[in-house]
Write a structure and sequence with these properties.
Strands 4-3-2-1-5 form a 5-stranded antiparallel β-sheet. It has 4 helices and 5 strands; from the N terminus they run H-E-E-E-E-H-H-E-H. With 224 residues, the chain is an alpha+beta fold.
Length: 224
């Protein structure tokens, strides 16, 4: 019962991470315009994402345009596009594998050892997808912070951290947490099974010794 609840918890946390990863990949709020110093045009907000950039005016009208070429992106956004796509695929694959490996799922004639291997694979993929997602999110955040405090960069070109970056950190944490839950579950199951197999053997050996002692004492008394 506890193991099933643990698996369901890991699956729910992993599902939240998968949804968050897909949302971060498509959101345009990676870079948001910063209103500092002489930049007082506050009624216009600029969003820059992996696939498009948007201009929002006075919280009423918003226009978005897809990038004409990948070369128009900065190097960090170019790499982030590929890494986020890879993270999305890995997280979705881990989620499907986790569903197949759960105890409550009947898939063909699979043994408990096969189920444990499937769950372990899902856990490792969750951790890998979380790490892959952390790389672009932290890279873009570091670039934004470096440009913000760089006096050479024009004020109009400085950006702040967007909502997509914060959501990316949360999604990556959920993926890594789900992977850790599945890996710990497999480890605990291995210890439980090894203890379950060793205990009967020890009991059997102890019973055989007692039986031999009884027989030997009986034969001696009979001899006397």
């Amino acid at each position: 019962m506890v193991s099933s609840a643990l698996q369901i918890t890991g699956l729910l946390i992993g599902g939240i991470g998968v949804i968050g990863t897909f949302a971060v990949t498509g959101m345009p709020q990676w870079r948001v315009s910063a209103f500092i110093e002489n930049n007082i045009i506050v009624f216009e907000t600029i969003w820059e994402g992996l696939w498009m950039h948007c201009i929002r005016q006075a919280n009423i009208r918003m226009q978005c345009k897809v990038y004409d070429s990948m070369l128009a992106l900065s190097p960090d956004l170019q790499a982030s596009r590929g890494l986020m796509c890879a993270g999305s695929v890995l997280s979705f694959l881990a989620f499907i594998i986790a569903i197949i490996g759960m105890k409550c799922t009947q898939c063909a004639q699979s043994s408990w050892q096969a189920k444990d291997c499937i769950i372990l694979t899902a856990g490792l993929l969750f951790i890998l997808s979380g790490a892959v997602e952390l790389i672009p999110v932290c890279w873009v955040a570091n670039t934004i912070i470096s440009d913000f405090y760089n006096p050479i960069v024009n004020v109009a070109q400085k950006r702040e951290l967007g909502e997509a970056l914060y959501l990316g950190w949360v999604a990556a944490f959920c993926l890594i947490a789900a992977g850790a839950i599945f890996c710990c579950f497999c480890r605990c199951c291995e210890k439980t099974r090894s203890y379950g197999h060793s205990a009967p053997t020890h009991y059997r050996t102890h019973s055989q010794r007692l039986h031999r002692k009884t027989e030997s004492s009986y034969s001696k008394s009979q001899y006397v």
